[in-house]
Amino acid sequence: MRYRPFGATGASISNLTFSVGLDIAARGPEVAHDLIYAALEAGINSYRLETADPVLAELVGHALSTVDRKLLNVSLALGRGDGRRGGERDFSAEGMTGAIDRALHISGLGWIDMALLEQPGENELPQSSLNALKALRQTERVRFLGVSGEDAVMDAYVSTGAFDVLATPYNVDSPWQIRSRIRDAKAQDMAVLAYDYFPDSLNSAKKAAAVHEPKKGFFGFGSGSGGRSKDDPLAGAGTFAFLHQTPNWDAEAICLAHVLTDPSVCSVMVKSRDAERLSRLALIPDRDMPPGLSAQIEMARVSGAKAA
Fold first, then answer.
1. What is the reported pTM?
2. What is the pLDDT of residues 153-170, one digit of tens each?
3. Cα 137 to chain centroid, rounded
4. Residue 12 belongs to domain with CATH number
5. Which domain holds residue 228?
6. pLDDT by residue (tens digit) across 221-242?
7. Residues 272 and 253 in one domain
8. Cα(182)–Cα(265) distance, rounded to whole angstroms?
9. With contact defined as beta carbons under 8 Å apart, do 228 and 239 qualify?
10. Number of folded domains in the chain?
11. Do 112 and 232 share a domain, yes or no?
12. 104: region left, alpha or beta (phi > 0 left; psi from -120 to 50 alpha)
């Protein structure tokens, strides 16, 4: 595992952040603890609670209790609810403060490093809520405030200067708007976390080859790869088909490694229900991508941008 500076805070964060949700909690304490222990053994020091559900907070807090708290970076997603009201979205000052207090009380974590607001809409975050979060930061129950999402409203949240962290989807085919937002966040000295590094549109060879496939013409003529047959050596050119054709690399590993080549990103959120898979992902930061692969990714991305 490698580590990067966490924005301008002076702290370090592992290249990977293990995202823990209710799907893992539902499998029972033993399975959840084993997964978190596997992440710790792999050198991961960053953990994200996907909701403020008390059961999840207790599981994560118990598993991390064996580690010096100062060495960990724990983030909590806010706005999704805490499981007490059916997952209802809640960005109110009372709702978020209550969720943080309950999570801290039952987890024993002492403080939350990052409070991450999950995709707040343009009118979902009143000033009273932001003031409440700033008050929590002043009392050090929360160290940093972050905003997470992909909609255009994120540009406005980044520009306010009120947040320390931006969590954003980022992958080999991310559009210029996402890349521009990341640059703007870095200009604000925000730490940048990436998620959705391996989107569903790329998780099979067939899907990856069709991402930038030209649409059929008026009379139904035309097909992917410029009308080439599947046996043509150039079939799939200009698409992401190569992600599933690179020796000794699988598509997910390439996508994760590519995001990590961007120095603006301090950590990538990963999910796993399997300790062995999590351990494999934890090896990716130490691997160098094959020569020429970055160029292939850029050519495919630019090809798609032109076709859009």
1. 0.87
2. 999 999 999 999 999 999
3. 23
4. 3.20.20.100
5. 199-247+290-308
6. 444 444 444 444 444 456 888 8
7. yes
8. 8
9. no
10. 2
11. no
12. alpha
